[in-house]
């Protein structure tokens, strides 16, 4: 399975800086054996697409989407609108959206289904709080989030196959990543839920990423851990040269 590295800029970089980032990143020497994507704010999609050209590296992603195609949903953006920019993947249910915008498991599931209908790959984010982690409830929380995320008809495979990102909230932006071993165990929990819903074979084919305080020094260790099929990178993706270095560090020697 090809590994996948996704940059998540979060709420950084309007059109001007987004275009500059893409141009700088494309000057980096990048490994061909790894898929690389960048999730940009909606307002920067046009600039990013124009700097990228029609296709190529990095894959263009969004950070959120609504579930309806159009209608009285002020401020929202539909998957079909994202598709007009040639958006190839979209994050869904990032913990920052669950925390600050009240996004629920049900909304996450509906968004993922709608994205697939528009031909966009959903990257469903799950992760437990620090409290749940400390109380030994991580597995329970992740199982529940995953079951709910798969409950509305999202497909695991196909032309816009499901990707899952395990991002423990306590590890995001804290410089305290979850250990590769711990991440591996949680990825197994996620894969079990997918296997129960679909099949073991299907579960083996779904890419499960780890996200939370990964940088260019630690990425290789995570990607060489069984069951970790990629990484989601926040802070270390903001500088295109650092992110380029991170992608090179990830490639097998
Ligand atoms: P971080 O963020 O790499 O800055 O910890 C990861 C994320 O939230 O996707």
TrEMBL record:
The keyword Isomerase applies. The active site is at 94 (electrophile), 167 (proton acceptor). One of its GO terms (molecular function) is triose-phosphate isomerase activity. Its EC number is 5.3.1.1. It is an enzyme of class 5 (isomerase). Signal peptide: none annotated. It comes from the Bacteria. GO terms for biological process: gluconeogenesis; glyceraldehyde-3-phosphate biosynthetic process; glycerol catabolic process; glycolytic process. Substrate binds at residues 8-10, 173, 213, 234-235. Keywords: Cytoplasm, Gluconeogenesis, Glycolysis, Isomerase. GO terms for cellular component: cytosol. InterPro entries: Aldolase_TIM, TIM_sf, TrioseP_Isoase_bac/euk, Triosephosphate_isomerase. Its main location: cytoplasm. PROSITE patterns: TIM_2. Pathway: Carbohydrate biosynthesis; gluconeogenesis; Carbohydrate degradation; glycolysis; D-glyceraldehyde 3-phosphate from glycerone phosphate: step 1/1. It catalyses: D-glyceraldehyde 3-phosphate = dihydroxyacetone phosphate. It is found in: Cytoplasm. Homodimer. Involved in the gluconeogenesis. Catalyzes stereospecifically the conversion of dihydroxyacetone phosphate (DHAP) to D-glyceraldehyde-3-phosphate (G3P). Belongs to the triosephosphate isomerase family. This is Triosephosphate isomerase. It comes from Candidatus Uhrbacteria bacterium CG22_combo_CG10-13_8_21_14_all_47_17. The gene is tpiA.
